[in-house]
Design brief:
This is Membrane protein. InterPro entries: DUF4191 (IPR025445). Keywords: Membrane, Transmembrane, Transmembrane helix. The chain has 7 helices and 4 strands, in the order ααααβββαβαα. By secondary structure, it is an alpha+beta fold. Strands 1-2-3-4 form a 4-stranded mixed β-sheet, sandwiched between helices. Strand 1 and strand 2 form a beta hairpin. Helix 1 packs across helix 3 and helix 2 packs antiparallel against helix 3. It is elongated. The N and C termini lie far apart (about 70 Å). The C terminus is likely disordered.
Length: about 230
């Protein structure tokens, strides 16, 4: 029991430090975060307390109001902190991958499945909506990356719908802060077993490509590749 109490006491300061750090980071982008949280807490507590006086139970409803005020402040703080984080990540390489990693357990994400020399990149997410290819980078250059990746998906999992999204602030692009909600709004057309099967096929293809033996060193002079490839016996 003593060990559990010590572990709990050690964990609490860590949580408090994390909350304080998150608040400081949020306040850099959202200067009014303190006033907003205070207003939310006072408004909720004031409503409950007023109702308590009206019905003759100010103590009980005051306690309930305090608890609901803390809950309301936590919800507002979480949303504004997320918005501030997205604002700071906007335009940074790999920002879309960070959002996909936190989209939820129903999605399996694989970052950087395709990339070019200009560091334009395509990430892949698999869920009940099918396969979603998320590109970030120059909108003109990522078109070829998306086309090549969609062609590859058509060969591997032809029966699974493939969606493509380009993260950015331009026309026909998805802002980073709306990427998660946009993906969650996609129609669900696959069952759980179908999602698992799709992930297995993609994983097997990835393992096959990574384990494919490649010749080391330069090709000997005068040596040519046989026409038509190896014959099956």
């Amino acid at each position: 029991m003593a060990r559990k109490d010590n572990a709990a006491e050690a964990a609490n300061p860590g949580r408090l430090k994390q909350i304080a750090l998150t608040y400081k980071m949020t306040r850099r982008a959202d200067k009014k975060i303190g006033l907003v949280l205070a207003a939310v807490g006072i408004a909720i507590f004031g409503v409950f307390l007023a109702i308590g006086f009206l019905v003759g139970h100010p103590v009980y409803l005051g306690i309930a109001g305090f608890l609901f005020a803390v809950l309301g402040m936590a919800i507002v703080f979480g949303r504004r902190a997320e918005r501030a984080a997205f604002g700071q990540m906007e335009g940074q390489p790999g920002a879309a991958a960070a959002v996909l990693d936190n989209i939820g357990r129903q999605w399996t994400t694989t970052p950087a499945v395709a990339m070019n020399r200009s560091q334009d990149v395509v990430h892949r997410a698999v869920g009940k909506a099918g396969i979603v290819l998320v590109a970030e980078g120059n909108p003109n250059r990522v078109k070829s990356l998306l086309a090549a990746e969609k062609k590859k998906m058509a060969r591997i999992v032809a029966d699974v719908p493939v969606h493509d999204l380009v993260v950015g602030t331009g026309e026909d692009q998805i802002p980073l802060k709306k990427l998660r909600t946009t993906m969650l709004k996609l129609p669900r057309v696959l069952t759980g077993p179908q999602v698992t099967a799709t992930n297995d096929r993609l994983r097997a293809m990835g393992d096959l490509m990574s384990n494919m033996p490649l010749p080391k060193g330069p090709m000997p002079k005068g040596m040519r590749m046989p026409r038509g490839g190896p014959k099956m016996r």
